[in-house]
Structure formats: C-alpha cells, structure tokens
C-alpha cells in the first residue's frame, strides 16, 4: 500500500455511455527513448494503462514489474474464459480471478504481496459499463469515480464535488482532464460502445491525441523548460 501511495495517480470515471481512465506517466529522463509511444504498438506507451481484453481496460498504480505480471495473468484468464464459454469475460469475474491470485500471495510464507492496485474499466451485456478497484490484499470494490496513487485524496474530493450520476463520456473526459491537468504527462483511455456493432470499443490515446484533448478543454500541459525560463 505504501508503494501505491507514492505511485503516479490513476483516475477512473464511470459515465452512462462509457468509462474514462487516465494515468500519470512518470517520465524518468529526457534521454529516454519514447519512439514506441508515437509509432506502432497499441495506443500509449504501455506504462500505466493496458488493454486486458476487448471489453476491459486496466490502469495500474504501484510496482510496474509486478503490474506486468498481473496484466499477463488477466489477459490469459480472459482468453481462457473466451475459449470455454465463447463470450467476453464479465468485468467483475476478471477482478475476482485476479484478487484470488493476489490474496494467495498474502497467506504463504516466503512470498510478498503484489505491490499493485488496479482500476478495471469494462463492459458486459448484463451490467453494462463498470469500474472496479482492487488492492494488494485481494479486496475489490465497484465505483462511480475513484482515484488511486499519489495525491488521490485531493482528486477524490474534486470528483465528489463534480461527479453526477447521469454524466456522459464527453463530460467525463473534461472532468478527468481538469482533475489530472496538473500532471506533467499522462496516459488516457476511453471505453465506449460501437454505435453500429454494439460491441465495446477501447481507445488508448497516443501522446499527440492527448495534447489535442487538452487543447479542446482549454488546458495546456506544463512544460519544464518553459517554467525554468520564465522563472
């Protein structure tokens, strides 16, 4: 839990017609090669937000190495369910499967718990759009809007004030961007229904698409160089 409290913020908002996820991306240095985030790959640079299945996106806060292992487990569980039942795994069932694994690591000697909290943004035909949160102990809970990681308390209080039950995706995007706009860099993803096929459609935004979103909301990303020059 301590590792998660110092990790980059991950925020999720449930809307009537979709779910929005955003994560603070910690860029460790200017010499880091970020070419993979602008060309090839699926959406972002794959540091904090992952596609777990066609109907579920996950946002992770905590130890990234642990997160990679859990993301692989989630993807395998989703594919096993698809193979067995010929349908996408329900969101809560996927959260349960992962929490069973997490809880197992808290009760055996010689093993440490996974230092990761995960937000699951998903869709299934029965309960439609859902947002779940799981922590290292194996507890999970459903949310309308929530935040994990550093400064989550401040973000939670802002969400409490501005969240409405009948919020739509386009307003949820604005709410998330306003809440996260203080961060230097972020990853961003939206899960909606395709209007023609009525199947869940995940979009993980690329960096230039996030910049365009920020501009459309009248927000701009802080730049370290500009700040240093102005001071």
UniProtKB/TrEMBL annotation:
Keywords: Proteasome
Pfam families linked: Proteasome (PF00227)
Coiled coil (residue ranges): none
A biological process from GO: proteolysis involved in protein catabolic process
InterPro entries with a match to the protein in the record: Ntn_hydrolases_N (IPR029055), Proteasome_alpha (IPR050115), Proteasome_alpha-type (IPR023332), Proteasome_sua/b (IPR001353)
SUPFAM superfamilies on file: N-terminal nucleophile aminohydrolases (Ntn hydrolases) (SSF56235)
Record flagged with keyword Kinase: no
Source domain of life: Eukaryota
Similarity remark: Belongs to the peptidase T1A family.
Record-given protein name: Proteasome alpha-type subunits domain-containing protein
Organism, scientific name: Candolleomyces aberdarensis
């Amino acid at each position: 839990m301590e590792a998660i409290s110092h990790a980059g913020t991950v925020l999720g908002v449930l809307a009537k017609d979709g779910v929005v996820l955003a994560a603070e991306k910690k860029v460790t240095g200017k010499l880091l090669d970020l070419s993979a985030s602008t060309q090839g790959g699926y959406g972002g640079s794959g540091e904090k937000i992952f596609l777990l299945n066609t109907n579920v996106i996950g946002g992770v806060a905590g130890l990234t190495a642990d997160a990679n292992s859990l993301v692989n487990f989630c993807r395998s569980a989703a594919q096993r369910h698809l193979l067995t039942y010929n349908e996408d795994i329900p969101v809560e069932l996927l959260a349960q499967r992962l929490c069973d694994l997490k809880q197992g690591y808290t009760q055996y000697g010689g093993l440490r718990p996974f230092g990761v909290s995960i937000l699951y943004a998903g869709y299934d035909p029965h309960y439609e759009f859902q947002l779940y949160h799981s922590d290292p102990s194996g507890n999970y809970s459903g949310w309308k809007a929530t935040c994990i990681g550093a400064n989550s308390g401040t973000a939670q209080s802002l969400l409490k004030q501005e969240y409405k039950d009948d919020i739509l995706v386009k307003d949820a995007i604005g709410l998330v961007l306003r809440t996260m706009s203080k961060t230097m860099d972020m990853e961003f993803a939206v899960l909606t229904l395709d209007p023609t096929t009525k199947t869940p459609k995940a979009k993980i935004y690329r960096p230039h698409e996030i910049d365009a979103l920020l501009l459309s909301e009248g927000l701009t990303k802080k730049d370290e160089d500009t700040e240093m020059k102005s001071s």
